[in-house]
Write a structure and sequence with these properties.
By secondary structure, the chain is α/β, with parallel strands linked by helices. It contains 14 helices and seven strands. The longest helix has 28 residues. The structure holds guanosine-5'-diphosphate. Guanosine-5'-diphosphate binds next to helix 4.
Length: about 325
């Protein structure tokens, strides 16, 4: 009984936009404690009908490109336009490394003090599916708490752009002119996940270099196939220090969002993403269950030896392991 009361209080506080309640709710869904799982599940179910109206914007770039500084400036623009801004950080690599430097409040000083902003640092550890689940559930909680601009910061390390692209409505890629990564980015497929690209730190001596880089990149991008939106990413110049280009960036993001909502792209992407994560989560859970199966583990070393020794085909061994898993009546998740 006590649990339900706490839950109701938490839900009510969250719906009123109370930041402490939101922070507690997020801690609950990040928790690994079995006792928290049903409370977290109910909370998400209650919040879901109140979510979905926000713009979910991915912001990607290598460390040092200026993500925090730009989010600080852009976030204030959103607030000036009457929006409420939540900044989340996701680091798919934290599933492997257990550490991250994203979502650091001290690096978003002005935004951290704004009443209409909520900043949440990266949760660390867990599987990739776990990181994705927590991020998406956190988005739902933030939206139910009245945040209508959700900025999702991620470090640009290849695969993570593609994962973030499957959680967001629009993606902004940040680059530094002259860092030599303009064309590298094209090679690595990073551009394919970008709706907008900004060359950061376009101030002082770097301004002219950034302008040249912008022209070069715009030309190069026309050679690539357009994104699913039918658009090539626009390339902008920004300086979070002087403020140049930030208002423009803000307006461009809003215009693209309006266009995508009107055309149905936003909704279509969200539906596709939900299916993607359902399947990804299913696969990850199955593999975990398989690896935890006592029968599978008992037979694994022998089968590995047989495969290495060439006395059994890898496919036959895999089929036998799967058979053992099925026969084992592995507990369903
Ligand atoms: P992050 O690692 O991508 O979050 O990058 P930061 O936002 O922490 O910025 C890295 C460094 O670049 C810091 O020393 C910033 O002061 C500096 N920086 C960020 N934005 C700008 C900018 O617009 N102009 C200049 N000149 N420096 C910037």
């Amino acid at each position: 009984m006590a649990r339900t009361v706490v839950d109701e209080q938490l839900f009510a506080g969250l719906r009123q936009g109370d930041r402490a309640a939101l922070a507690r709710a997020i801690t609950l869904i990040e928790s690994d404690r079995d006792a928290d799982a049903p409370v977290a599940k109910t909370l998400i179910e209650r919040c879901l009908p109140h979510s979905g109206d926000a713009l979910r914007l991915g912001i990607t770039g290598i460390p040092g490109v200026g993500k925090s500084t730009l989010i600080d400036a852009l976030g204030l623009q959103f607030i000036a336009a009457g929006r409420r801004v939540a900044v989340l950080a996701i680091d798919p690599s934290s599933a492997r490394t257990g550490g991250s430097i994203l979502g650091d409040k001290t690096r978003m000083e002005r935004l951290a003090q704004a009443d209409a902003a909520f900043i949440r640092p990266t949760p660390t550890g867990g599987t990739l599916g776990g990181v994705a689940r927590r991020t998406q559930e956190t988005i739902v909680l933030c939206e139910a708490a009245g945040y209508d601009r959700i900025l999702i910061e991620t470090v640009g390390v290849g695969q993570s752009e593609l994962d973030v692209d499957r959680m967001t409505d629009l993606n902004l890629l940040l680059m530094i002119a002259g860092a030599g990564d303009e064309l590298q980015g094209i090679k690595r497929g990073i551009m394919e996940a970008a709706d907008l690209i900004a060359f950061t730190k376009a101030d002082g001596d770097a301004e002219a270099r950034a302008a040249r880089a912008r022209t070069d990149l715009k030309n190069a991008l026309t050679l690539l196939p357009p994104r699913d939106s039918g658009r090539h990413p626009d390339v902008l110049l920004t300086s979070a220090i002087t403020g140049a280009g930030i208002a423009d960036l803000h307006d461009r993001i809003d215009a693209l969002h309006q266009e995508d909502v009107a055309s149905g792209r936003t909704l279509r992407r969200r539906h596709e993403h939900n299916l993607f994560w359902m399947h990804r989560s299913l696969e990850e859970s199955l593999v975990t269950a398989l690896r935890n199966s006592a029968r599978v583990n008992a037979a694994l070393a022998d089968l590995e030896r047989a495969v290495q020794g060439g006395t059994k085909s890898p496919f036959q061994a895999a089929a036998e392991l799967l058979d053992l898993f099925r026969k084992g009546g592995a507990p369903l998740l």
